[in-house]
Amino acid sequence: MKKVKLVKPETSIGSIDLPFMVLVLTLVIFGLIMLFSASYATAYYRFNDSYKFIKQQAFFAVIGVIAMFVASRVDYHIFHKLALPLLALTMVLLVIVLFMPELNGAKRWIFIPGLGNFQPSEVAKFAVIVLFANIIAVNADRMKTFSYGVLPFGIVLGAVAVLMLLEPHLSGTILICSIGAVMMFIGGTSLKWFGIGGAIGAGGITAAVLAFPDLVPYAMTRIEMWQNPFMDIQGKGHQTVQSLYAIGSGGLFGLGLGNSRQKHMYVPEPQNDFIFSIICEELGFVGAMLVVLLFVALLIRGATIAIYAKDKFGAMLVVGITAQVTIQAMLNIAVVTNTIPNTGISLPFFSYGGTSLLMLLGEMGIVLSVSRQCRYPKE
Prior knowledge:
- This protein is mostly helical.
- The chain has helices spanning 18-47, 52-72, 79-96, 120-138, 146-149, 151-165, 170-187, 191-211, 215-227, 238-250, 275-307, 312-336, 354-372, and strands at residues 5-7, 12-13, 16-17, 110-112, 116-118, 376-378.
- The strands form three sheets. Strands 1-6 form a two-stranded antiparallel ribbon. It has a two-stranded antiparallel ribbon with strand order 2-3.
- Helix 1 packs antiparallel against helix 2 and helix 4 (120-138) packs parallel to helix 7.
């Protein structure tokens, strides 16, 4: 039998995983191009400055790429010690945001004078990933039990979910719970606990509806508009309807980069959650598939890094971060195409949001840090 020798990957730059890095930089550049195309009309109409959104996003992209390379050179094991402090910070931020002014009927943003605003849910996603990776790494051989493989995860997800539902932030809650479920499954939690957890989750949703009755009309309106957005074209169904018009008019190859009609004050906030509809309109089915394939490639490469990670902690960090990007992209595309109800979730690397992009690139740096210590087999 041949012996397997562990060596550094051939496709690396100073031990950084080259394919993953190229995919990330491609998504950043592609995202900036499409953001400018989708946003310049709105920026001009609202601020008399066509470059307003792209200037800010490009600034955070540059800072984010620098942060990514810095993070890639930091030993990821430092997050073992930061797991609980990050969770504590998250809980504080999720409480603070409840006292912030409402924007579009929700309290999701903390406003910092002179610096803009950010969503605590971005910190919450990262904190949950780090904490779950830490718990799984420490209790790898006990994940089949309820005490170690279910209870701590359920307590954390329950606490975070309650605070986020108070905002309300349904999409963020769904995303974080989905990330947690993926990490638990990959980490070794027994399948039977997922069935029991589903039943408990259904009971929790019922309890939330009874405890927070304001969530009922909020959720029901979203479901009604999902079933038939054309019932209120000028109102709550307007954004979805205009998005579908944009997608439908793109055809196979699109109208051409920069030639979208729907971004001219038809699709509200085309630079944010519904930027994918502008991509479909300008680049057509081909461009839309390119975006999807880039995210699929990122998922596959992330999975490869996780498989060959040096230890369980590194593997689970990569699983959580890759799951976050992939699930968020899936949810966004599903919303834009009206496959699921409108949940207000951004498209990673593409949607406008400087602090979100900065944090995302920092997470990509952590994946690259893990890749530095990967043990790739070679015969």
